[in-house]
């Protein structure tokens, strides 16, 4: 077996891919509906992209999925179980989250940050065993970050921190992942590598993305949000149309089929000033 195959096998999810569903989820803060009766479903092993303009409610919806926020109404189910009724350890064994923010500057080494992903699989005060160490280093290697293992996390660049936090989620070995802008701060190569990795792992994944061309290239389906609501859900070719981009993003765009990949490719032609200003 090659080293690459061994590494990939080490970080494959231990838990089976789950079925993730949001059912009529609303989040109201100070009288304002940040999410308004949003429903979606991600089938086992499916990668669903969550897209929409700033303020559409994507991050708020994701926070309800991984239980950082309590919905005002509705519920989130993982394999039919309400996530709010699951124990923290049970949920963490099945669902891993990569947040948009770095959650502060840890005064820890990169290795120790990634090792946090092993916590749901241990008893209190357990140290890292041989399997843990192999999983941690394999997760770092997948993100091209093995050489950073002993570096202080708080001295890393934004892109390096993002890769380490994704490695931490990999080390969790959950079958379902929620990723909020995982390509944020990453250069082009690491953006592609990260999304390829998510697909290769075979996990159930709900991924918020700003780059619609990346979403078209890597997602099985795309869920579009605007104004806190789910506008439409479907395959990239069904969803990413010039009409939708005009309605939701207020941009004039040309959508063509990429000659090599066959997926929709978006070329922006103008911004909001195109509309109604002659």
Please explain how this structure is put together.
With 278 residues, this protein is α/β, with parallel strands linked by helices. It has two domains: 3-238, 3-Layer(aba) Sandwich (Rossmann fold), CATH 3.40.50; 241-278, no CATH class. It is 33% helix and 26% strand. The protein is built from ten helices and twelve strands. It has helices at 3-11, 58-65, 88-94, 110-115, 130-142, 158-172, 188-201, 212-218, 236-239, 242-249, and strands at 20-29, 32-42, 47-51, 73-78, 81-82, 95-98, 176-180, 204-208, 221-226, 229-234, 252-257, 264-270. Strands 6-7-8-3-9-10 form a six-stranded mixed beta sheet, with helices on both faces. The N and C termini lie far apart (63 Å).
Secondary-structure topology with pairs:
Blueprint: H1 3-11, E1 20-29, E2 32-42, E3 47-51, H2 58-65, E4 73-78, E5 81-82, H3 88-94, E6 95-98, H4 110-115, H5 130-142, H6 158-172, E7 176-180, H7 188-201, E8 204-208, H8 212-218, E9 221-226, E10 229-234, H9 236-239, H10 242-249, E11 252-257, E12 264-270
Parallel strand pairs: 3-8, 3-9, 6-7, 7-8
Antiparallel strand pairs: 1-2, 1-4, 4-5, 9-10, 11-12
Helix pairs in contact: 1-5, 5-6
Provide a brief overview of the structure.
Helix content is 33%, strand content 26%.
The total count of helices amounts to 10
CATH fold description of the largest domain: Rossmann fold
Q: Helix and strand string, N-terminal first?
A: HEEEHEEHEHHHEHEHEEHHEE
Major sheet: arrangement of strands: 6-7-8-3-9-10
Tell me the radius of gyration: 19 Å
Report on the biggest sheet.
Answer: 6 strands, mixed
Give the domain tally: 2
Q: What is the molecular shape? A: globular
User: How many angstroms separate the termini?
Assistant: 63 Å
Report the structural category. alpha/beta
């Amino acid at each position: 077996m090659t080293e690459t195959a061994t590494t990939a096998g080490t970080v494959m999810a231990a838990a089976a891919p789950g079925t993730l569903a949001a059912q009529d989820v609303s989040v109201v803060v100070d009288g304002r509906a940040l999410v308004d009766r949003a429903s979606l479903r991600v089938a086992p092993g499916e990668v669903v992209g969550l897209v929409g303009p700033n303020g559409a409610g994507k991050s708020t919806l994701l926070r309800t999925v991984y239980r950082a926020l309590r919905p005002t109404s509705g519920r989130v189910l993982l394999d039919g179980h309400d996530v709010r009724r699951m124990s923290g350890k049970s949920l963490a064994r099945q669902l891993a989250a990569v947040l948009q923010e770095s959650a502060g500057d840890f005064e820890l080494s990169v290795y120790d940050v990634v090792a946090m992903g092993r916590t749901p699989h241990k008893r209190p005060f357990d140290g890292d065993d041989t399997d843990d160490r192999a999983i941690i280093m394999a997760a770092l290697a997948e993100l091209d970050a093995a050489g950073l293992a002993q570096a202080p996390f708080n001295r890393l660049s934004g892109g390096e921190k993002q890769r380490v936090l994704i490695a931490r989620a990999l080390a969790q070995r959950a079958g379902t992942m929620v990723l909020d802008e995982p390509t944020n701060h990453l250069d082009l190569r690491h953006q592609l590598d990260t999304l390829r990795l998510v697909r290769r792992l075979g996990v159930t994944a709900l991924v918020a993305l700003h780059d619609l061309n990346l979403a078209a290239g890597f997602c099985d389906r795309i869920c579009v949000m605007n104004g806190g609501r789910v506008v439409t859900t479907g395959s990239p070719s069904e969803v990413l149309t010039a009409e939708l981009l005009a309605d939701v993003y207020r941009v004039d765009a040309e959508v063509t089929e990429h000659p090599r990949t066959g997926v929709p490719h978006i070329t922006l032609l103008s911004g909001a000033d195109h509309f109604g200003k002659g």
